[in-house]
Each structure stands twice: as C-alpha cells, then as structure tokens.
C-alpha cells in the first residue's frame, strides 16, 4: 500500500493506541466483558444439551470452541476498526493523514493493535473456559494456530475494507464497523455444519474463509481429524480477500482525496 | 503576483478543485518564496481551506498543479511531508493522552531525532513544561493551541501551514503565539502560509497577502500596497471592500 514501511512510524501509532488503552479502564473491561458472557452462555448451553443428547455429548466443546473462534474473528475485526475509529472520534485523522505516515504503516499498526486487544480480551476467557467447562482451546495446538491465522486474516480484511468506507463516507459508515461481521455469523456456519444450509447458500458459505475454519474445528472436535486441506483452502481465499480489501482501501482513500472527505470527520 | 527568484517553496499553477457541482478553487496560481510569510485571506467558502488541504496533499486537484519543495502533491507527498507541518484549530490531538505522549507519538511519526530533548526544548520555548504530564483534554483552549503549535514545530518544518492559528485565543495569548511564529520563521527561514480572519495578525506577521473570493484570487500584494491601492487604513477595510465587491482606488478613478 504505497511506499516503504518504517518500523518507527508503525511503532509510534501502536504506542499511541497503547497509551489510550491503558489510560481507560472501561476500554479494557469492554475487551473482556462480552467474550466472557458469550463463552459462559454457550458453555452452559453445551452442558445442558450434552446431558440430553448422545451426539452432543460426544461432540464435546463444539459450541464453546465455536464461540471462542467466532470471538477471534469478530473481536479481531472490531479491534482493528475501533483503533481506526478512535482517530475519527478524537478528530485526529487530519494530523495522521498529513503526517509522513503511509497507509501501509497505518494498517500495520491497526493489525498489531487488533492482536494486542484480542490477547487482552481472549486469553482470560480461554482460561475461564478451562476453569468452568474443562475446555482447553490451547490444547488444539497447531490446529489452533491454523484456525487463528485464517480467522485473523479475514478479520483484518474486513477491518481494512470498513476503514476505507469510513474514510470515504465519514462517520455515517461507522455502524458498519460494529455490524458487518454479523453478516458472516449465519453464512460461515459458526454453530452448525454447512450441510444444514440450503444448497444455493452453501455456495456462498464456501466462498467465505471462516466457513472452512469452523468446519475444520468440528472435524477436529467430533472426528478428531485435522483437515489441513480446509485450512489451505481458507488461506488461499484469505489471500484473495485481503488483496481485494487492500485494493478497495486504497481506492476509497484515493476517492476520499478526490472528494475532500479527509478534511471532514463528521457524518 | 510577486516575482519569485529562488525555487519557490510552494508553487500553485492553475489549480482547480471541483466537488461534484461546486467549484471550490477556480484556476488559482501563486508561488511563495522560501522564507516568506504569506496570508491567505477570504470569507467563508472562498477556497482557503481547500487550497491549504491541496498543498498538504489531503485533496487531489481536479486540474492544475501543486508543488511543495519541488515535490508534486499529492503524488509525491511522502517525499516532503517530513519537511512540512501544519496547525489548525479544527483538528485535535487525542484528549486522553498526555501532552508528552502526544508529542512523542508525533515526533516519531515525523522521524525527529532525540525525541525527549526536542520535546523538552519546545516545552521550554512554548511554556509547556508544567503541562507535559497532563492529559491534553484537560487543558484550556490557549494551552491546547500551544500544544498544537509545539506539534507543528516538532520536525523543524521548512514549510508551515497555519489555519487560524489564534482562533478562540484571548488577545494576550494570541499575541504571544504570533511572537513565537515570527521568531520561528526568523530562526529557521521557514516558509509560512497562514489562513486567518484576523487582519491585525496578518498585518503584523505577513509581508504578502493573497485575497480569495469564490475560489479565485481577487488580489495579491504586500499589505502596504493593498492599503494604498484601496485607499484604506486597515486590512480589515480592504477585506470588506473585496468581500463586498467594491473597486479599489485605481479602478474607481478609471
């Protein structure tokens, strides 16, 4: 995304978001609160269903695993988008856009912050999942790394695209940052197999990289098989998705320069 | 337009900017000599902000050319952004960050060497030392303006763009800020372009005034020659003459 990358400038932006995060306990609480609620709710539901259904008793952890992986996807994008929106809320975007910071450096800083925010939010929740339900996400080992890599790539691609929309269209597009990922919730089959969908919708589902991850997770937890083929297909789709999002971001940034939108941070 | 013998710090050639059906800037040309301080005047909607945003590479011209320190804007903006800076009351710095944190972040973005020393130097110069560890959002308007000024001077800019640098400041603080700007320009030989509605400020600081109206340059001269030409005693009167379409003395005589 145009020009060489300076670690100093990326570091400066990460430092900016870190200063903000550590100065505000509600921001930190927000990172942990909802993933914990979600995990507890789905964990207890899993206990209830597992006690009354043979299949679900065998498929231990699919719900709780699904909710944790979904949170990686959702919170990864939210972490990226919220850091970007902080500039809009602070009316700081003008300072940023008129500084020597390149778009690629801005995006790199947002990706790093997405990882930091995710770590703050998700690590305690995975530990609580062990404590409450005996479900150890970390025990998935290499498979977890593959799931995580694919989910975070998708979340960044969506975050980059939404940031471009906000740059181009102003804060009127802010709500997309909060809601766009929910479109993927039914389509990527987080809590059920793809086979449940109508045939035509299955085509849509298989275009989305997270679908492969959730199918892969169920294969691992139910059949105890790691489907590397699914992970490689997800990675290939993610590369295409990420490139498309980066291209869209640059186009929207260029369009914002033509329209003068970078001078405004309002609606 | 004044002749510019050295390579201009800023050169604008037949700049046009059209937003859908609105022409914000309509074919303006001017060049600013290195080390000069120039005012860009005009009423609301005259095209000043668009002109400055184009110089910063924030807006792509519809046609025409903008060059800053020899670099084509916005295409080659990353060649020169490190040598420029700006200050505007319409852009804030993150409020929860302390003054020191904000200045540290921007110093790193601009690749300033010896960040801590530069911040200490600016803090001493702009009377910010006691404010460095306070959240920026807790400062008064005047203190925030001084912080913005510190940010705009962090990288020793060769080109400094100022949009209403003393807006909403009390007269004492505004005078103090003007003094600092003058001192910086003299010390560093920086080129300063100032958009302002404060005519006293313009008369004090600028050796050249460009007056815009409806996206065009209506007049461009030294403050003294403008006063003479319009037969007025203050730039405010000249501004009103231009804004209300009254002819200057030489035109009226014809």
Structural features, described:
The complex is a heterodimer of chains A (267) and B (254). Chain A starts with 6 loop residues before the first helix and ends in an 8-residue tail after the last helix. Chain A has one domain (7-263). Chain A has twelve helices and no strands. In chain A, helix 4 (62-89) packs antiparallel against helix 6 (103-133). Chain A is mostly helical. Chain A is globular and about 60 Å long. Chain B has 254 residues and is α/β, with parallel strands linked by helices. Helices cover 37% and strands 24% of the residues of chain B. Chain B has one domain (10-91, 158-253): 3-Layer(aba) Sandwich (Rossmann fold). The longest helix of chain B has 18 residues, at 171-188. The two termini of chain B are 22 Å apart. In chain B, 46% of the residues are buried. Chain B has helices at 48-55, 77-80, 99-109, 115-125, 141-153, 171-188, 199-205, 223-230, 235-243, 249-253; strands at 10-19, 22-32, 37-42, 63-68, 71-73, 84-87, 159-163, 191-195, 208-213, 216-221. In chain B, the strands form two sheets. Chain B has a six-stranded mixed β-sheet with strand order 6-7-8-3-9-10, sandwiched between helices. Chain B has ten helices and ten strands. Chain A binds chain B through residues 2-3, 6, 8-9, 11-13, 15-16, 19-20, 23-24, 86, 90-102, 254, 257-260, 262-263, and chain B through 17, 19, 24, 49-50, 53, 56-60, 74, 78, 81-82, 84, 86, 88, 90-98, 101, 104-106, 108-111, 135, 151.
């Amino acid at each position: 995304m145009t020009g060489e990358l300076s670690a100093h400038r990326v570091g400066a932006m990460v430092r900016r978001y870190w200063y903000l995060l550590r100065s505000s306990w509600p921001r930190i609480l927000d990172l942990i609160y909802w993933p914990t609620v979600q995990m507890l709710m789905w964990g207890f539901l899993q206990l209830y269903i597992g006690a009354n259904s043979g299949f679900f008793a065998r498929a231990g952890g699919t719900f709780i695993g699904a909710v944790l992986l979904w949170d990686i996807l959702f919170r990864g994008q939210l972490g990226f988008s919220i850091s970007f929106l902080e500039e809009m809320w602070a009316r700081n975007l003008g300072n940023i856009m008129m500084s020597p910071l390149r778009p690629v450096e801005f995006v790199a800083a947002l990706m790093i912050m997405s990882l930091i925010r995710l770590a703050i939010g998700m690590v305690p929740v995975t530990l609580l999942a062990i404590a409450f339900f005996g479900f150890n996400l970390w025990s998935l080992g290499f498979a977890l790394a593959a799931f995580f890599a694919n989910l975070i790539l998708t979340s960044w691609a969506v975050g980059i695209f939404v940031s471009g929309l906000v740059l181009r269209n102003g804060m009127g597009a802010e709500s997309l940052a909060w809601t766009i990922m929910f479109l993927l919730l039914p389509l990527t089959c987080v809590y059920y197999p793809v086979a449940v969908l109508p045939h035509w919708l299955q085509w849509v589902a298989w275009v989305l990289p997270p679908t492969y991850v959730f199918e892969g997770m169920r294969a691992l937890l139910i059949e105890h098989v790691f489907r590397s083929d699914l992970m490689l297909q997800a990675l290939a789709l993610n590369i295409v998705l990420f490139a498309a999002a980066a291209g869209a971001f640059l186009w929207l940034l260029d369009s914002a320069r033509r329209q003068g939108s970078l001078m405004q941070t309002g609606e | 337009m004044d002749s510019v013998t050295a390579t201009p710090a800023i050169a604008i050639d037949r700049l046009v900017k059209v937003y859908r059906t609105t022409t914000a800037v309509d074919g303006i040309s001017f060049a600013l000599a290195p080390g000069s301080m120039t005012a860009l005047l005009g009423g609301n909607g005259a095209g000043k902000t668009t002109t400055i945003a184009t110089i910063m590479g924030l807006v792509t011209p519809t046609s025409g050319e903008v060059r800053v320190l020899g670099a084509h804007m916005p295409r080659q903006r990353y060649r020169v952004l490190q040598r420029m800076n700006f200050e505007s009351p319409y852009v804030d710095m993150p409020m929860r960050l302390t003054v020191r944190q904000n200045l540290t972040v921007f110093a790193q973005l601009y690749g300033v060497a010896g960040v801590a020393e530069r911040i200490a130097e600016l803090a001493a110069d702009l009377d910010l030392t006691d404010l460095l560890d306070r959240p920026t959002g807790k400062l008064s308007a005047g203190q925030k303006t001084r912080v913005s000024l510190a940010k705009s001077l962090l990288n020793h800019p060769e080109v400094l763009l100022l949009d209403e640098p003393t807006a909403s400041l009390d007269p004492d603080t505004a005078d103090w800020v003007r003094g600092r700007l003058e001192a910086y320009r003299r010390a560093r030989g920086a080129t300063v372009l100032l958009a302002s509605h404060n005519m006293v400020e313009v008369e004090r600081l600028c050796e050249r005034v460009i007056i815009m109206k409806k996206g065009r340059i209506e007049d461009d001269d030294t403050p003294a020659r403008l006063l003479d030409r319009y037969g007025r005693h203050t730039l405010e009167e000249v501004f009103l003459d231009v804004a209300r379409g009254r002819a200057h003395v030489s035109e009226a005589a014809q």
